[in-house]
Design goal:
Elements lengths: L10 H40 L2 H22 L3 H23 L9 H11 L3 H23 L10 H79 L11 H21 L2 H5 L8 E4 H17 L4 E6 L6 E4 L1 H18 L5 E9 L2 E7 L31 H11 L3 E6 L5 E8 L1 E2 L19 E5 L3 H13 L3 E5 L2 H11 L3 E5 L7 H10 L8 E5 L4 H10 L3 E4 L4 H13 L2
Parallel strand pairs: 2-4, 9-10, 9-11, 11-12, 12-13
Antiparallel strand pairs: 1-3, 3-8, 4-5, 5-7, 6-7
Helix pairs in contact: 1-2, 1-3, 1-6, 2-3, 3-4, 3-5, 4-5, 4-6, 6-7, 6-9, 7-9, 9-10, 10-11
């Protein structure tokens, strides 16, 4: 099973590149037109003063060549236009500097050529070479004045005086023009850098918010797992090697782990939120059973404060609804977590759900100290810590919950609870639906019986996790702590597939992949890379490495079964 990759298009970068190209074309065109007009006028004036065709015809050719730059930039290649313009200016200055002799005052154009070098060439090596070459030519022309190898056109005194001022005006015009655009370009670059700094600041702030919110969301299900496991560990008979665990407790742990996994999966969509591209993704799901399971899971957390969660459903509540389950989960979990946090000890949290006029009204009522009227709107601002006399902050849960509710064309409000405390109510339109069709893909572990799979991972807990899953499928498991040990065991046992962690000491999984594929005896074995990071960049790295498959931790047993079946059994 080869992994398919769809690379996202960088629209913003493309737009910025187009704007930069358009700006450079505008600058080059304006400089080319100005240089063409200057060459034409100077050629006419100097021809009138000297009558020399060696001045007139080259000047007219120079003027026409400057205009030809417009044709080059018309095809969106301003860099070629820049280089041609610099070349024309250099040749013209050198040619007329030799032709007119010391009266040309060629040194006045040195700053102009230097500015042009930094505008046209961006690599330090190219800048150094061109500057050195231009300075060398200037020096040779000055030496030609003192020891003439090429004789200049003889000029009368009056002509030299007029030429003196023409050269000053021309040099001033060229130096001023290029300095203006050089300064303008520098300001533009500074502005772009400032925009980048501001964007990085916003991104940094968004990442801090993301870390805090992820911690906020993952803390509650993690507490559920910790509380249940701690209870069994502390109450177990130390003389026995096993302990009986209630199925309800295992289901709660499993559901809490799924809850944490969903939080991490939602983190992948954070870039969409930053870019304003977060979207609603509706799908049919079992609503009533899902709500009960959520409440049952958080009941374990509530019991630590001697709090009970009471559920009340309206008679017209549909069993299945069509909605964005991920966003709805975020809202409900935040309401439950805050209710447990702020309700009083030995109290009841009441969860109600009812349908009115095709609108879902879902409320969570606590029996805490309540929220003063002037604070009710502020509670939806990040990290407000004033809920009555409670000192604990409400974090980012409520602001994000309201944001998501409004994304789904609903709202999240708070009112006083007549029994004391607060009632948070989610209102949103919902569409009732039927149960989704069951997937046709059946899991038949017998298909994998007798296979040998090598697991290469430096973490022994991952060895345990993979061993439990693979042995359940009837697969013989081979374990290796490092890539080097993995190669030895692979040559010795010739497994049907290899699972390798991407991040290991000394050598990465992708580097080990190239060693496996270089071995004639091992290169045909399906190679699956495993990572705790499921971002698109990691998938792209896996694809580029030539791996046959990719799995992200925590590994789902169904995904593991499917990838092994596709790569080994169906291959």
């Amino acid at each position: 099973m080869k992994i398919n990759n769809i690379s996202p298009r960088s629209t913003d970068l493309s737009t910025e590149a187009n704007e930069t190209t358009a700006r450079m074309i505008k600058i080059v065109n304006s400089l080319a037109i100005g240089a063409s007009l200057l060459a034409f006028m100077l050629g006419c004036v100097l021809y009138y003063l000297t009558g020399a065709s060696l001045i007139f015809y080259p000047a007219m050719a120079e003027s026409a060549l400057f205009l030809s730059i417009l044709l080059i930039t018309r095809h969106g290649r301003p860099e070629y236009g820049q280089q041609l313009m610099f070349l024309l200016h250099s040749i013209s200055i050198w040619y007329f500097g030799i032709l007119l002799g010391p009266a040309s005052q060629i040194y006045l154009f040195a700053p102009f050529l230097a500015f042009c070098v930094f505008l046209v060439y961006h690599k330090p090596l190219a800048q150094g070479l061109v500057l050195t070459s231009s300075a060398l030519v200037m020096l040779l022309i000055e030496m030609n004045y003192r020891h003439p190898l090429i004789k200049a056109i003889p000029l009368e005194k009056d002509t030299e005086a007029i030429l003196h001022w023409l050269v000053i005006l021309s040099a001033t015009f060229l130096n001023g023009t290029v300095l203006y655009y050089f300064t303008k370009e520098s300001r533009h670059q500074n502005k772009q850098l400032q925009l980048l700094v501001n964007q990085l600041d916003k991104t940094n702030q968004a990442m801090r918010i993301y870390v805090r919110e992820t911690t906020h969301e993952i803390r509650s299900p993690l507490n559920v797992v910790n509380s249940i496991l701690q209870n069994y560990i502390e109450t177990a008979d130390p003389g026995r090697r096993s302990v009986q665990v209630g199925i309800a407790h295992l289901e709660a742990i499993h559901f809490a782990c799924q809850d944490m996994q969903l939080v991490m999966s939602n983190a992948l969509g954070w870039s969409k939120i930053e870019e304003g591209k977060d979207e609603i993704s509706n799908s049919p799901f079992l609503f009533t059973g899902w709500i009960r399971q959520l409440c049952d899971t958080y009941e374990y957390l509530a019991k630590r404060r001697s709090v009970h969660i009471n559920i009340s459903f309206g008679g017209n509540l549909p069993e299945y609804i069509l909605a964005d389950k991920s966003k709805l989960r975020t809202i409900i979990v935040n309401l439950l977590s805050n209710a447990i946090k702020f309700t009083t000890v030995h109290s009841i949290i009441t969860v109600r759900a009812v349908i009115k006029n095709n609108q879902l009204f879902f409320s969570v009522a606590d029996q805490g100290n309540g929220i003063p009227a002037e604070k009710k709107e502020h509670i939806f601002e990040p990290y407000v810590s004033e809920r009555g006399q409670q000192a604990e902050s409400s974090g980012l849960g409520l602001p994000i919950a309201r944001h998501m509710a409004r994304m789904m064309n609903g709202d999240l409000t708070v009112n006083d609870n007549p029994d004391g405390g607060s009632i948070f109510t989610l209102r949103m339109p919902v569409e009732t639906t039927i149960a989704p069709a069951l997937e046709t893909t059946a899991i038949d572990f017998s298909l994998l019986h007798g296979l040998k799979v090598l697991v290469v991972d430096d973490d022994h807990l991952n060895h345990l996790a993979f061993s439990l899953a693979l042995q359940r499928m009837g697969i013989e498991v081979l374990l290796a702590d490092s890539g080097a040990q993995g190669i030895v065991k692979a040559r010795m046992h010739e497994p049907d597939a290899i699972l390798m962690d991407m991040i290991m000491p000394h050598v990465s999984g992708t580097e080990m992949l190239s060693q496996f594929k270089a071995d004639p005896k091992l290169k045909q074995i399906p190679f699956i890379l495993v990572s705790g990071n499921c971002y698109s960049e990691v998938r792209e790295e896996v694809i580029a490495s030539g791996a046959d498959g990719f799995l992200s931790k925590p590994v789902n047993i169904e995904q593991l079964y499917c990838i092994l079946k596709d790569l080994v059994v169906m291959a």
